[in-house]
Amino acid sequence: MSRQVSLRPWQRDALDAFTRRRSDSFLAVACPGAGKTTFALAACRQFLGGEPRPVVVVVPTQHLKHQWTEAAARFGIHLDPEWTERSGLVADMHGIVTTYAQVAMSAGALAVIVRNGVVVLDEIHHAADERSWGDGVKLAFAPAACRLLLSGTPFRSDDSPIPFVGYSFGDYGDAIADYEYGYGEALADGGVVRPVFFPRFDGHMEWRGADGEEHSATFNDEVTHDKWGGRLRTALSIDGEWLPTVVMRAHERLMEIRKTHVEAGGLIIATDQEHARGIVKLLKRFHRVDARLALSDDPKASQVIAQFADSIEPWIVAVRMISEGVDIPRLRVGVYATTTVTPMFFRQAVGRIARWTPGQRSQRAYLFLPDDPRLRVHALGIAQSRRHSIELRIRRREAEEGEFDEYLGAERSEEQQLSLFAALSSTVVDAGGSSSDGVDPTEDVVLEPGDLRSFTIDLPPPPPLPGRVGDLEGVGPVRSRHGEKKRLRDRNASLVADLARVAGLGHRAINGELNRLAGIVRIDDATVPQLARRATEASKWLDDPASFVVGRAPAPVSRADRRATPVIDLQDDRDAGHPGASGAVEPVVVDATDVSSRLAALRRTLGTSAP
C-alpha cells in the first residue's frame, strides 16, 4: 500500500497542528463536507507510526460504522464494525468502530482495549446526548494515549459540557478548538463545499392551538413565542397548500439541475415518521416519483441510504437518518420540512447538500425553507458568509475566517398537545419574491481544472497485526477486511448448506470439521486467510465426496496431506436433541457411492455435470 496521501490545504495544516499537540486530546472543528474523515485517518496513521497500537472509532449511528470501516480500509487500517463486548477483538483487525450508545454499555471493556492506543470520537457533541453516553465516554477513553475529537457543530442546545473538550469558562462558554475550518474558508478555498442558497417561503397559516383557540398569521407577522411552533407546524402540514407548493418548487429546481448534473438528488427532512410517509405519497401523487424513505426504526434504513447514494433516483425522505455524517455527495436540493429549529440541526442539514463533488464546474445547492424567523436567522448567517467568500475568490485574495452567525435566542420548537392542536389551512404567500435569497448570476463558485490545490505527504506505514496469518492475495487497498470477511462467511455458509444436502449430515457436524481443518474454534474469530482456507476445504469435500469417511478418527489428520480422509464426530448432533443422544456414539460409515449419487443429482438439478 502507498505511504503517500493527497490532502487539501486545511487537512495538511490540521495534521501539522495535530502533530504539534501538547495534550492527549485534540478537537478539530470543520464544516460538514470538508473532509474530516480523511484528516482523522491520516492523523491516526501519523500517531501509530507503524506500531501495532489499538484504534477505536466512535460514531453516532449504525450506518456510519460501515462508512468509517470502508474509509479506514483505504488507509490500510482495518476496523471491525460488528464488535461487541462478548466477541472481543479478532487477530486480523487493527481495531473497532462502535457507537456512543454501545460505549455507555461497554465502557469497561473499551477502557482495556484502547489503552496505549488512539480513539477517534466523531461528532463528539453526541457524547452528551444522554448523561450515560457522556459518562461512558469519559470512563472508556480516559486511558487512551490519544483522543481525536471531530465535530462540525461543537456546541449543544442544552449547554451540557462535552467530554474532553475545553471551554472558555470552565464547563461553560465557547468550546476551544485546536483547529477550526469554517464554511466561509472552505468556500473561499474552492473544491471543498458548494455555495448553498436558501429560497424562503412566507405563508398564511390558520390553526387551533393547544388551548383550543384559533389563530392565523404569516411568517412575517409578530406573534408571541408560544405561537411560533403552531405556525410552523401548520405550514408543514401535508393537508395544507404550503408544503405541496414548496415541494413542487424544489422538484422543479432539481429537474433543472439534472439537465446538466444527471445524477443530482434531493433530500426532504420531515418532522416525524408519519409526516415522512405523507411526503413520499405527495411526491408520488403530484410528481410521479417513487421516493426512497429512510426511517430510524427500519432495520434496512442503512441499506436504503446506501442504495440511494449509488443510484440516480431523484428524491429521498428522512426524519433524522440523514441529518448528520451520512455521505451522499450527489444531493443538490433540500427541503427543510421539520419543526426542529436549533442551529446545530440546521447546519447539519445544510451540510448534507454542501459537499463538493469532482466533475462539475458550477455546483450551486439549494435548501428550501419556511420563512420562520429562527430559520431565517440561521440562513442569513450562512448566506452572509457565502457572499463574503465568493467576493474574496473574485478578488483573488486569501480567504479570511468566515464564521457561522449564531442565533442565541433560538429555541426548540414547542411541544404541542396534539389532542387539541389542529392545522386548519396553509398557503404560500408571495412565493416568487421571498424565494430568491438574493441570487445573483455572478454569485457562484466556478472551478477550472487548475484551481484545486492539494498536497501529497508521506505517512508512516500501516501497523502490523499481531497474530495475523497473512494477507489474502488479491485484496485491494480499497476493500475493507470486514467486507472481505463477510463475503467469505457467506461463501462458507453456502458451501456448508450444499454439503448438508449432499452428504445428509447436520450443519453442526460439518462446521465442526471445517473449523478443525482451518484451525479455528469459532467462525466469528476467523481471520481472512482462515476463512479462505475453510472455504477451500469445503470445496474439496464437495468436489470429491468419495474420499471422506464419517466417524471417529483413529488418528489425527496429517497437515501435510489435506486430501487425507477427514472424520466427523456426530456426538454434537446427537447432543443437540437427535435420536440416541443419551447413548454411546458408534462410528457411522457413509456409503461413498450413495454420497456420489446425491452429489450427481444435485449437480443435475443445478445444470452442471457430476465429477
Automatic annotation (TrEMBL):
Q: Note the Pfam families from the entry.
A: ResIII
Q: Which GO terms describe its molecular function?
A: ATP binding; DNA binding; hydrolase activity
Q: Where is this region: Disordered?
A: 455-487, 560-585
Supply the PANTHER family for this chain: HELICASE ATP-BINDING DOMAIN-CONTAINING PROTEIN, TYPE I RESTRICTION ENZYME ECOKI R PROTEIN
What is the protein name given in its UniProt record? Unannotated protein
Organism, as annotated: freshwater metagenome
Q: Gene Ontology cellular component?
A: cytosol
Give the source lineage, highest ranks first.
unclassified sequences, metagenomes, ecological metagenomes
Q: Which residues form the Helicase ATP-binding domain?
A: 17-172
